[in-house]
Amino acid sequence: MLRLQAPLADRYTRATPAELEAMIRDAKGVLGDRLLILGHHYQRPEVIRWADMRGDSFRLARFAADNSDATDIVFCGVHFMAESADVLTADHQRVVLPDLNAGCSMADMADIDQVEECWDALAEITDIDRVVPITYMNSSAALKAFVGRQGGAVCTSSNARAVLEWAFRRGPDTKVLFFPDQHLGRNTGYDMGYRASDMHVWNPHLELGGLDERAIKEGTFLLWRGHCTVHQRFQPDHIRQFRAEHPDGQVIVHPECKHEVVALADRVGSTERILEWVTAAPAGAVLGIGTEIHMTQRMAAENPDKTIVSLDPLVCPCSTMFRIDEPHLAWCLEALARDEVVNRIVVDPETAEWARVALQRMLDIT
Questions:
Q1: Confidence class of residue 58 from pLDDT cuts 50, 70 and 90?
Q2: DSSP label at 227?
Q3: Which domains are seen in the chain, by residue range?
Q4: Sign of the alpha-carbon dihedral angle for 258, 292, 40, 318
């Protein structure tokens, strides 16, 4: 998805860390209680330190909605997260994304045109009333609205199983179209007892998703061909190497990892669940973590009595999340202090209404 971020003035790009700190602190002082800075766990350290609240995307959006006194919400995350915040917050609250180029490669792997084309193709082959669309939270507001209109729901990495169980209660012939992350869908399907033969990958760039009619009619899961570029990096060899070096260590990975990685892990959970497990681990624990490096390094710094290492030796960060930096944060905060709103993220009313329907279904399920 093309997004255009205007270049920053030299005042921000050439500023020293001390100058940026002064800009941000002064702007926060002017804005006071009307400002709320949200920081996703994957943010770089110099940005996350300014966050009023840390969390995953849905937790942060809900936090903003529950704090209605804050009128200016600066979301240090990526585009779909800011959209979710705009969907859930009140009309008097404004959501700002410091850098418009901070997208999500996984979310961009499924756009509304592709999903609607897929839906129309399925309707020509199978009973579309028995197909339940489920979109991961890591998707655009347009896709959340689509599943809202079509009787589906949103899921997170922590409640995907509950949402899928809800979908399959519709009847024995129910199918699920799960997007945009194939790995979360596949790992959850295996956890529920389904087999590889029950799952087929839909490639949006091929006719009929690269499947034949029989596979579509007989399959239970249609998994969109999407993935997280960070979590897909983790490999079984990373786990084997960790275990060779730390025989008593424990491996914890995110369910966006490939199934062969998840199958070798000791624990599999969302960013919030990983944080809970690490925090609760006893002193002296040795933990190999399969998630984004900034979060892993932060957990290590905040738990000095434990050995916490990334399973990936190349420690690749989330490149799109990494676009949020102090110069962009200082720029948007100073603008807000002048009552000038830059990079506001606005979801149109109809899309927001149906996205809220899909999100509310998730909340009702879980």
A1: confident
A2: -
A3: 10-105+320-347 (3.40.50.10800), 107-228 (3.40.50.10800), 231-310 (3.40.50.10800)
A4: negative
Question: What tokens were used for 311?
Answer: 């399973």
pTM for this entry: 0.92
CA dihedral for 161, 291, 332, 51, sign (positive or negative): positive
Listed in sequence order, the DSSP H helices in 281-325 are 293-302
Distance of CA 187 to the CA centre of its chain: 16
Instruction: Check pLDDT > 90 for residue 302.
Output: yes
**Paired tokens of 53:** 């609240």
Query: Each residue of 72-104: b (16+ CB within 10 Å) or e?
Result: bbbbbbbbbbbbbbbbbbeeebbbbbbbbebbb
User: Per mean pLDDT, which range of 41-45, 145-149, 330-334 is the poorest?
Assistant: 41-45
Rounded to whole angstroms, the Cα distance separating 356 from 153 reads 10
Question: CA-to-CA distance for 139 and 105, rounded, in angstroms?
Answer: 10
Three-state DSSP at 145 gives helix
Closest CA to 57 of 12, 20, 87, 33: 87
* Alpha-carbon distances of 284 from 207, 248, 272, 298, 306, rounded to whole Å: 53, 11, 21, 17, 5
Can you tell me the distance from the alpha carbon of 267 to that of 254, in angstroms, rounded to the nearest whole number?
A: 9
